[in-house]
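// run 5 | inverse folding | seed 20
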């Protein structure tokens, strides 16, 4: 379940043009290769699906806290 090359290019382009905006991705559980591809592309946090509200809220709080500290 790898992202298409076009999707990764879009992520890289977005990261280059808007480096101050953190990205979070949701992926299928256990796809370590995809997780690494996304992190290499500049995604700040990668979460496994399914995600519940508490997990998502915690992830977003963490990403925003890291953003303020940067």
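// decoded
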């Amino acid at each position: 379940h790898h992202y298409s090359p076009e999707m990764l290019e879009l992520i890289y382009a977005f990261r280059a043009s808007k480096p101050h905006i953190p990205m979070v991705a949701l992926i299928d559980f256990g796809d370590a290769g995809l997780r690494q591809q996304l992190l290499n592309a500049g995604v700040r946090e990668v979460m496994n699906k399914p995600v519940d509200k508490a997990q998502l809220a915690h992830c977003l709080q963490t990403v925003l806290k890291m953003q303020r500290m940067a």
